[in-house]
Amino acid sequence: MQLNHTDGFSRRLALSVLVAIGLVVASCGNSGDDTADSDENPSTTETGGSDATGDEEFVSIEGVPGVTDDEIRYAGFGTFAESNPLGTCVMQCMAEGVEAYFAYRNSEGGVHGRELVLDDPVNDELTKNQEKALEIVSAGEHFGAFSATQVASGWQDITGAGMPLYVWNIHPVETQDEAVFGNAPTICIECTQRNAVWAGQQIGAENFAVFGYGVSENSKLSAQTSRAAIEQHADETGQEVVVFDDNLDFGLPNGIAPQVSAMVENDVDMVLSSIDLNGQKTLAQEMERQGLGDVPIFHPNTYNQDFVAEAGDLFVGDFVTVGFLPFEAEAEGTGQAAFREWMGELGHEISEVAMVGWIVADAAYQGLVAAGPDFDQQKVIDATNQITDFTADGLVPPIDWTTGHTPPTPDDRITNGSERTCTAMVRVNESAEFEIYGGTPEKPWVCFANDDLSVLEPEFVSFG
Q1: Contact 203, 209 (CB under 8 A)
Q2: Residue among 338, 319, 331 at smallest CA distance from 442
């Protein structure tokens, strides 16, 4: 099935579909050679762990942008909801998570005798990310910056000016910069994933449909690797991709009826989808209309409780991957308890991207602590890149930043990647609420060893 695409402007807007696959491919990240249980795998870093406070003897610093004797000031720039084709909260939500984390650390005395400050973020209006980055650089008033954007055209201008940059990692090329630190390491978008294959096994699914957008190379490639994962394990599982379309129009403006009809004809019993939030809803509605409402969709995003609840029973039975410790997991012993407390203190709504902001704000803090009291921008970048076991206090699989900017490859996921690939997973229950799937609230991470990619038996672990 080949569908016609729209004009060049719509093609540029479709870059925003990166959001749709960001969390699922982030699970191909860097989880280190470790033992996962909390008593053997503490959520501290080898250089500046979560218990560090940076309260060494105060050192007065001159000539470092954004640093005074009282504060360390950061900028924020990215896509606001009103400029986002998907309509979802991006930069504002990330900023709320950063603000909550800074308030938490400032309540403990800040770092190196200074408070952490985030200025009001600016909207890049989707197409002006580089313009806003250059304005920040020209002002020379900030030590570093935070960014959650659909088009990362200005990130290299920030790092080129010597500033550390902390980001929502949905851009696999731009995060290869050694001064860019995300909520996950540089991702391997070409690597096949076993989580969907395994989930399909658990429910007895054999006939799969796989979908992606043609206008986004990342969405297309994600669909292709989903198909490859099914084919790679077909002899063991008996699974087969019977409907495949990686050339859908962005946003499904003409619906998806022909593809769903093909699903009916081929007895599809599970869908792997690499499209955006609203596209997932259009797909689910058409499936329900054609009598496939009970066929589960494996979502790379859609971790949005309000969105799912408002859809009634549309997503019941569906699987959703999560790139951080799910809100439904056990929070004790992790940074999630502090996240909830300080988001509440500031009156901010808990959300996926706010958690991303909290995670990368912790990376900024840990880098400052590791650099020591006589710090500057380059020292913080260098010190962060020596952290080998960053988990944001149990919120993400361990990141080794000594290799975290180098993308793994399908054939070498260990040298530049990780000893295993870990993904948290939830499933939508009959009340349209998320529940941990596979693991338990205490051990929610589903991890597959990378020394033998044929193994489909995961280990369920905790990083807190």
Answers
A1: no
A2: 331
**Contact, 351 vs 303, CB < 8 A?**
no
Q: Using 50, 70 and 90 to split pLDDT, how confident is the model at 410? A: confident
Structure tokens at 54: 């940076």
Those residues with Cβ within 8 angstroms of residue 26's Cβ, 6 or more apart along the chain or in another chain:
169, 170, 183, 184, 187, 323
Longest dimension (CA), the chain: 72
CA 187 to chain centre: 10
CA angle 200, 205, 210 (to 5 degrees): 75
| Closest C-alpha among 86, 58, 51 to residue 72 | 58
Please, what is the average pLDDT of the chain? 88
Contact 348, 100 (CB under 8 A): yes
In this prediction, residues 320-339 reach a mean pLDDT of 95
Contacts (Cβ under 8 Å, ≥6 apart) of 98: 74, 76, 118, 146, 357, 358, 360, 361
Alpha-carbon separation of residue 336 from 50, 108, 384, 397, 426 (angstroms): 13, 17, 22, 14, 17
74 CB-side CA count, 13 A: 26
Rounded to two decimals, the pTM is 0.88
Distance CA 188, CA 30 (A): 10
What whole-number distance in Å separates Cα of residue 76 and Cα of residue 151?
A: 15
* Gap between the Cα atoms of 249 and 7, Å rounded: 11
Residue 156 CA to residue 165 CA, distance in Å, equals: 9
pLDDT at position 149: 94
Task: Give the SS3 label for residue 322.
Answer: strand
